[in-house]
Each structure stands twice: as C-alpha cells, then as structure tokens.
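Hi F.,

I've been meaning to write this up properly since the lab meeting, where we talked about keeping a consistent format for the predictions we share between groups. The idea is simple: the sequence comes first, exactly as it goes in, then the structure tokens exactly as they come out, then a line or two of notes. No screenshots and no reformatting. I'm using this chain as the first example so we have something concrete to point to.
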Amino acid sequence: MMRRFLVLLLILLSIGSPAMATEEPKFTLVLKDGDFEVRDYAPTVVAEVTVSGNQGQASNQGFRILAGYIFGGNTAQRSIAMTAPVAQRQASERIAMTAPVTQRSAGSDWIVRFTMPSEYTLGTLPRPDDRRITLRDEPGQRMAVMRFSGIANARSAERHTRELDVQLQARGLRRTGPTSLAQYDAPWTPWFMRRNEIMVPIAG
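Output, unedited:
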C-alpha cells in the first residue's frame, strides 16, 4: 500500500513541477480569442481505460490504473514518462445532429486517457499488464478548446462546456465528437494556478 502511494506521489510531482518539462501533445494554434482557442493537433498514441462512477471517482480510478501501466505494469517492466494533460470524457456521450447541442446519457461510464510520449509508436509501446487498458492511435484533429482555472469539478466543467458551445455556435463551427475535460496540474496546485480545458473535435 505504501509503495503504491509513493508511486502515485511521484507521478503527481512530475505533472506539477515546471522543472520536469512535462511533454504535452503538439499542436498548431489556429485561432485565439481570450480563453477560447482552435488548435490543430498532430497524431498521437494514447492509453485509455473505461471506468464507472461520478466524474471525480472515475478520474481517480482511471488515473490509478493508467499510472500502474506507465510505472512498470507492462510487458517490458519499463517506466514511461508522464505527459499532460490527463483527459476524461463520458463514454456514452452522444452528439446531436444540430450541434453544438450535446446530449448526455444517464450512464456513469467514463474514458480516462493518458497521451503517450512522442518517442513511442503503437508498435514500440510495451503492452499493459492490466487488460482493462487499451492502446490506440489517435489521429490528428482540429480541436476547439475553452481554457479555465480553478477546481475542475462537474459543475465547472458543465459551465465551461456551455461557454464553449456558445463560441462554436457564434462562429458556425460544428463539433464532430464528444467533449473531454483535460487537467494539467497536481491536486495540491493552488486553485487559481490550475490549468484546465474543455476540448471538443470540430470539422476542419
């Protein structure tokens, strides 16, 4: 139990410390207007797991499972560098035909995702010991983003999702996939210094 706690502590330190120069997915900034941005992301490889519960429970559970993988719970028994952000989305979210209105089901399944370091491909990553974890290629895509600080709980995520939808509607942008919540900082980071983002793929 103590060993597991120390492992998670090291992971969180690596996220929160500027000196660690945590890698983030590469993108080209297309548009910026205050906290609203449009970005073109390069293809990446991701590790993800589906978990159940409310947003906070799912985030914690998914983080622990994926942390086990990158800290040696894999066929090579190799540590893999932590990247930012940690992203999660509802597994059962459906996109209305008249976007940007989003319909969310009453289900409680969430997908929590780590982006793998850019040095890896799907072919060179070690396989996870935990069969709940899926490795897959994430294609390059255009993303609309609403950035915000503070505590990324369900209420704040919902509020900033609505703000993002207003921006999409005003600019005639069409969402093409589900909404994700991306969190970049360790839990002990002061709330006013935290970086969170609501992200949604849009038509290019």
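Notes:
The two ends are 47 Å apart (CA to CA).
The chain has one domain: 2-201.

If this format works for you, I'll send the rest the same way.

G.
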